[in-house]
Amino acid sequence: MSTNATSLASILPSGYASLFPQEASFAAMRVEDLTEVMHAEREAYPWPWSEGNLRESIVQGQCCQTLRGNGGELLGYYIAMPGVQEVHLLNITVAPAFQRQGWARVMLDNLHDWARELGSQWVWLEVRESNTRAIAIYEQYGFRRVGVRKAYYPLDGLRREDAIVMSSQP
């Protein structure tokens, strides 16, 4: 897995490169990162993962990556699980203070690089049907809708929301 520094400017058309000079680097998520990750998780979602879910992902050896800026600030993170010739993206989060800056694409690039290293044929994910912003990002990235999981996500105390199942080739 690549942990090299990535400049957002390096993946944008040259006319935009000067607008995004910040460099970032990936590192394996550690238990010591959980306080900061949980803060971002709670800020980003009405139904965040629990600290136990995150800790278990790290302990089980799933692909848990943090993306940090040059100053050490947490830009985002993702958690993915390998399968037989596939990778399942379980969680991808851009810290709210850094949303709409292209970091989701940087993390998806890193995830797809890892999936190719594993020899995976597919990357899968689920996304809330109401999360139109994330769906648009995934579709722009090349993910396609392949199904629906009925009542997959909690919506409130009584109702549940469907998930859109999406897939792409790394």
Would you summarize the structure shown here?
The protein has 170 residues and is of the alpha+beta class.
Structure notes:
- This protein is an alpha+beta fold and 170 residues long.
- It has a domain at 6-122: Aminopeptidase (3-Layer(aba) Sandwich), CATH 3.40.630.30.
- Helix content is 27%, strand content 36%.
- The protein has an eight-stranded mixed β-sheet, with helices on both faces.
- Strand 7 (144-154) and strand 8 (160-168) form a beta hairpin.
- The protein starts with 5 loop residues before the first strand and ends with a strand.
- Residues 9-19 have low confidence and may be disordered.
- Structural category: alpha+beta
Taking all Cα atoms into account, the compactness measure Rg is: 16 Å
CATH architecture classification name of the domain at 6-122: 3-Layer(aba) Sandwich
Major beta sheet summary: 8 strands, mixed
Question: What strand order characterises the main sheet?
Answer: 1-2-3-4-5-6-8-7
Molecular shape: globular
Mean pLDDT: 89
Helical content stands at: 25-40%
Enumerate how many helices there are, as a single number. 4
